[in-house]
What we know:
The chain is α/β, with parallel strands linked by helices. It has helices at 2-51, 61-71, 94-101, 117-123, 165-182, 187-211, 229-234, 253-265, 280-289, 304-308, 313-328; strands at 54-58, 75-79, 105-108, 130-133, 219-222, 238-241, 270-274, 292-296. It has 2 domains: 54-139 and 155-201, Rossmann fold; 212-328, 3-Layer(aba) Sandwich (Rossmann fold).
Amino acid sequence: xxxxxxxxxxxxxxxxxxxxxxxxxxxxxxxxxxxxxxxxxxxxxxxxxxxxxxxxxxxxxxxxxxxxxxxxxxxxxxxxxxxxxxxxxxxxxxxxxxxxxxxxxxxxxxxxxxxxxxxxxxxxxxxxxxxxxxxxxxxxxxxxxxxxxxxxxxxxxxxxxxxxxxxxxxxxxxxxxxxxxxxxxxxxxxxxxxxxxxxxxxxxxxxxxxxxxxxxxxxxxxxxxxxxxxxxxxxxxxxxxxxxxxxxxxxxxxxxxxxxxxxxxxxxxxxxxxxxxxxxxxxxxxxxxxxxxxxxxxxxxxxxxxxxxxxxxxxxxxxxxxxxxxxxxxx
Length: 331
Ligand SMILES: [Zn+2]
């Protein structure tokens, strides 16, 4: 009996022991599988993280180029405006609102360059969309009151801020800032990209500075809207234009006569017209004062061909510089 009890007791203990052992093993297996699932999910997540780019939409071409330069491989940057569209007068379509809703970051100039911005942002229902207004924190040039006949007598700030390459350096830094907020892991890359792009802007600025130092003329005439106020301020030039800050206005006969008189007084030899706008007004004025016409490109938007061929902000500005040197007779 005692032996039986003993063997029974032993077998109970043995059973216990066995159960404990199996339990341990099962527990371990369970943990191992949980761990591998965890690792797998983590890898999947990392993978997704690597392939998921930050979607950036910009209103105008220079901002697209800046955003591309700063975001590098981590960003997917596109232009809101279709090729050739005029930024001041463009109208958003429902598809644009859908596109913006799925973006991570929208960059625009502000200061009324994009009068359609308020409507479009009101319609975008996305709490994920970060917004960068590039003109904030930049010292703006107050424009002349325009469209008096329409009752808008308030002075409007000149929104063409990207035509001062120092402003562009500020914008590039701010793009690096906001990208670092959205994606802290890429911060170092964004800073590095921003500083090498800024170096190119500094070289461009220096080239303008040197090339426009010794010129016969310091006044230039735009036979269109006044897009080059920032460039004029930076390089100590004077811009006279037929239109105000927005290209959809028309010059009054009085304004035409006034500008023609100034052209004669300053012995102007070139009337500039804008790349994306008709040169008709410039031609009329040039004929009136015996001048020729040359093109300037503010670069807000490019043609389809230019976008396809990879024309850069620097290409456009270098071409502008050539025409400035020609028109102002610089040595
Ligand atoms: Zn403009």
